[in-house]
Write a structure and sequence with these properties.
single chain; 669 residues; mainly beta; 20-stranded antiparallel β-sheet; 4-stranded antiparallel β-sheet; 3 helices
């Protein structure tokens, strides 16, 4: 099989685009009855550009040219009546965002390769020796130029270039043997080994001092303002594993597995960890006493327990590191860049699950699972006193439990030879609780995050609780915490704001307790429609944007949200905002902590496949299908910001999920 594709997307913000070209191949062969071989290969070229003025799914931005550009006058066009891009757009002297981007062209290119080779030998029946080797990597380039003639450059340009190589090479070898004893007992045994090598290497150079737009190569800058840097990072994983499976009479099933993983990211004494899992299933429907239950098509009871590990940290977090890049009186000096952390070890998770699933009346599918997940030795950044010279250090900080239920229900509403209509829904409820903290602590309030881990409670938001506006004089108020700041207290109020003394448990959970979704799919002959909805309940999102655009005294002269017009006056004492005429400013308190529950149409697909009879009389096309896909088309939410679905607990300058429309034509030859 050989295939090719291309994809092009223009971002919501100026200067953002993504282009991808892909070629794929898949070759499988069986030269001998006892030998199978195969090779998969994929190569793609990606070209991207992001202005960096806006945040994304992993970062925020308070840049006035992007993330906070809504503070600018929205009535001023980005281009003039002649289509020209003015350099300075706003009266305060800020530059036109489009002009900034045009004068600072940048682009990242990725050349990705994903390839694997596999071979399987069966020297005798049901005994298989398999090996698979693969690599997933890319070469990247980055180019940035600040043009010298740009008004904001001061007549001096900048040029940056970098190259990088990154890959993960994996090899897996397994031995598998399956056999039966009579017709009742079925066994399967597997043993294997896996090795993973991660490698990342980069080289970057920067030069400044260009004065001519035509001469912007690195060597054209001033030598004294040029710099070069390089980095190298590697990690290794080595695993040995085994699995045992047994079934009896096609009714009772049991499986168990064990693996030992070693990771170079931990010190020698903590490098290895052993994980295991065991599970059983009872096919109740196959019991003799179920023969007469015609309404039950399938019914299974499952129970399992397993452990797994997490090593998603930097490659050298356990080492004491020295840096030679520091300067003292124009002389290079060596400094301690990271203290040794030999006790760092695997984050581990144990998961117990019991579930029941089945099909009823040949139309209703049900799956219910209860789970208890315990995470121990959680890997997190622990803030340090800045007087130590370090802001934080990675550490194993405690344990967290998550208990809940997963429910899936699907029903065939209509089903016929050339038509169908099916509905399904999923529901998850999760109860979170901190069960242990490091160094014997009962509580850990993480500085500058507004979050606290308290033993016996979920991870909660901590902040001053806004009590609204005093109807008597229009002053803002806050609730005074009680003796225990871990308990939400909303009794007495104060008009004096002090973040340190007013911060308490807001009663708002960091992790939403309810996730779910539902779908409806139908088709008639060649026409089909599917709509997928998702929802979240109990979500709180800090609308940090509102601190800027709904705070006219703090940010005088900037554009404001229309809601600030609801301020206190003698005639409007039940107002949302205080009396602006007295100079009050809004604070970073719970007035920007918003209900971010939402229901969203995540995906809508409409397709039509041309009937085979209309393709008769020719030997080229086997099929033709036209599709339309829409993403994020509808959203219902009380959240006043841009998007309630952004990752994390805070939204600042993030564009969020965009509406997307995709038209497709699928031809089969």
């Amino acid at each position: 099989m050989i295939g090719a594709s291309q994809y092009h997307q223009r971002g919501t913000a100026f200067g953002n685009f993504y282009d991808r070209y892909t070629v794929r191949s898949n070759v499988q062969g069986r030269p001998k009855d006892w030998l199978k071989m195969g090779m998969n290969f994929s190569f793609s070229m990606e070209q991207t550009s992001g202005a960096g003025f806006w945040g994304n799914s992993g970062s925020t931005s308070n840049n006035p040219y992007g993330g906070l550009s809504y503070l600018k006058n929205p009535l001023i066009p980005a281009v003039d009546e002649n289509g020209n891009v003015p350099e300075v757009l706003w009266a305060d002297g800020d530059y036109n965002t489009k002009y900034l981007i045009d004068q600072q062209p940048q682009q990242r290119d990725y050349y990705n390769m994903l390839g694997s080779f596999n071979v399987e030998i069966e020297p005798f029946k049901n005994f298989k020796i398999a090996s698979r080797a693969g690599v997933d990597g890319y070469v990247s380039t980055y180019n940035y130029t600040m043009i010298p003639s740009a008004q904001f450059s001061g007549g001096v340009g900048t040029r940056s270039r970098s190259y990088g190589l990154s890959y993960a090479a994996t090899i897996t070898n397994t031995l598998e043997y399956s056999f039966n004893i009579g017709n009742a007992h079925h066994f399967s045994l597997l043993a294997g080994h896996e090795g993973v090598s991660n490698y990342s290497d980069s080289l970057a150079g920067e030069s400044k001092g260009f004065t001519d737009d035509r001469l912007t190569n690195l060597q054209d800058g001033k030598k004294e303002e040029s710099s070069v840097s390089e980095s190298l990072s590697q990690s290794r994983f080595l695993s040995f594993f085994g699995r045992f499976e047994y079934s009896l009479l096609d009714k009772y099933y049991f499986d168990a597995s064990v693996r030992n993983d070693a990771c170079s990211r931990f010190g020698a004494n903590n490098r290895n960890a052993t994980f295991w899992a065991a599970g059983a299933m009872w096919r109740i429907k196959n019991e003799d006493f179920m023969m007469g239950a015609s309404a039950i098509n399938d019914l299974n009871l499952k129970v399992s327990y397993g452990t797994q590990g997490n090593a998603s940290i930097g490659n050298y977090q356990h080492l004491g590191l020295i840096s030679g890049s520091a300067k003292y009186m124009d002389t290079s000096v060596k400094v301690l860049a990271q203290p040794a952390n030999p006790g760092l070890t695997w984050e581990q998770q144990g998961l117990f699950t019991v579930g029941l699933n089945g099909r009823f009346f040949d139309m209703l599918d049900v799956n219910v699972e209860f789970y208890n997940r315990i995470t121990t030795d959680m890997l997190m950044d622990v803030p340090y006193n800045y007087t130590t010279g370090f802001s934080s250090l990675k550490a194993n900080v405690g344990s967290l439990s998550n208990r809940g239920v997963d429910i899936m229900i699907g029903v065939d509403i209509l089903r016929g030879r050339d038509y169908y209509l099916r509905a399904s829904t999923t529901f998850n409820y999760n109860a979170e609780k901190v069960t242990k903290l490091f160094n014997g602590l009962d509580r850990w309030e993480i500085a500058n995050t507004g979050l606290a881990y308290v033993v016996g409670k979920p991870v909660m938001f901590y902040a001053p609780i806004y009590a609204g506006v005093d109807p008597a004089d229009g002053a803002p108020m806050w609730y005074l915490p009680g003796e225990n700041v871990d308990e939400t207290t909303m009794k007495e109020t104060t008009k004096k704001f002090d973040k340190a003394t007013l911060t308490q448990n807001t009663g708002l959970r960091y992790t939403p307790p309810v996730y779910g979704g539902f779908s409806i799919a139908g088709g008639w002959r060649g026409f089909s429609v599917q709509a997928d909805f998702s929802y979240v309940l109990g979500k709180t999102l800090i609308n940090n944007d509102a601190y800027f655009y709904a705070n006219p005294n703090q940010f005088a002269g900037d554009n404001c949200h229309k809601s600030v017009a609801d301020f206190w006056t003698p005639e409007n004492t039940d107002a949302k905002f205080p009396d602006w005429s007295k100079g009050y400013s809004m604070q970073m308190d719970t007035h920007v902590y918003e209900d971010a529950d939402f229901l969203r149409l995540k995906n809508l697909q409409v397709a039509y496949a041309l009937p085979k009879r209309l393709l008769a009389g020719q030997n080229v096309l086997n099929g033709l299908k036209v599709t339309f896909t829409g993403r994020n088309l509808l959203t219902a939410t009380k959240y006043s910001g841009i998007d309630p679905e952004v990752a994390g607990n805070l939204s600042l300058g993030r564009l969020g999920n965009s509406k997307q429309y995709l038209f497709g034509l699928e031809l089969t030859f």
